[in-house]
Write a structure and sequence with these properties.
Elements: E1 2-7, E2 10-13, E3 18-26, E4 33-39, E5 46-52, E6 57-59, E7 67-72, E8 77-82, E9 91-98, E10 102-104, E11 108-113
Parallel strand pairs: 2-11
Antiparallel strand pairs: 1-3, 3-8, 4-5, 4-9, 5-6, 7-8, 9-10, 9-11
């Protein structure tokens, strides 16, 4: 099993930046992909970004050029640097990981003021 704990959420003004972190523990040796989804009120959960052990990254089109995902393999930690934040980025951000199955963190709230 894999446990995921997010941190770094909070309130930020539009145009500002925020960095999220996700620490993985447990059976991390079988981890293939780790990344972030987000879910805004009344909206479906959507992929934000992910990264695999080879360092390949994927971003949703709306995040490209503004968000950056990185992974520290030794520390089993992934980071999401979010720049030029817009009000529409307000959501609960969930860390997720793929191994034999999918694992989810509890989520961290990001609120972008207008």
């Amino acid at each position: 099993q894999v446990q995921l704990v997010e941190s770094g959420g909070g309130l930020v003004q539009a145009g500002g930046s925020l960095s999220l972190s996700c620490a993985a523990s447990g059976a991390t040796s079988r981890l293939n992909v780790i990344g972030w989804y987000r879910q805004a009120p009344g909206k479906q959960r959507e992929l934000v970004a992910n990264i695999n052990d080879a360092g390949s990254t994927r971003y949703a089109d709306s995040m490209k050029g503004r968000f950056t995902i990185t992974r520290d393999i030794a520390k089993n930690t992934v980071h999401l640097q979010m720049n030029s934040l817009e009000h529409e980025a307000t959501a609960v951000y969930y860390c997720y990981a793929l191994a034999a199955g999918i694992y989810w963190g509890q989520g961290t709230q990001v609120t972008v003021s207008s």
